[in-house]
Amino acid sequence: MIRAAIDTNALLKMVYSSILASVTIAVVFATAILGAIRASEMRRAHRSVATVAYATVAVVGVLFAASVVVYALVLITRKG
């Protein structure tokens, strides 16, 4: 029987890195959604400062989530 050589250190690093990345991106995107919802509520309540603050949270969250996705695609498609 041929025994396959498995680099367990690389495998474990990949597992915990992917879990950490998944949880982080989920939290960031959920924060962006929360910011958008709260901005809408604050706008209806005529609270302009809070509206701007929550809208900023939403925009920053979406931009960060998008940049993480783009970075991941770059890493995946990079040769070598």
Residue ranges: pLDDT <50 for 5 or more in a row?
A: none
Please report the number of helical segments: 2
Helix coverage percent: over 70%
- In whole angstroms, the N-to-C terminal distance is 31 Å
Described by its quaternary structure, the protein is: single chain
The total strand number stands at 0
Q: Report the sheet-strand fraction.
A: under 5%
Average pLDDT, all residues: 90
In terms of structural class, how would the helical and strand content be classed?
Answer: mainly alpha
What is the strand and helix layout of this fold?
Elements: H1 8-44, H2 48-77
Report on this model:
The chain has a domain at 26-77. Helices cover 84% and strands 0% of the residues. The chain contains two helices and no strands. The mean pLDDT is 90.
Label this structure with key terms.
2 helices, 80 residues, mainly alpha, single chain, 84% helix
Summary of the model, kept short:
By secondary structure, this protein is an all-alpha fold.
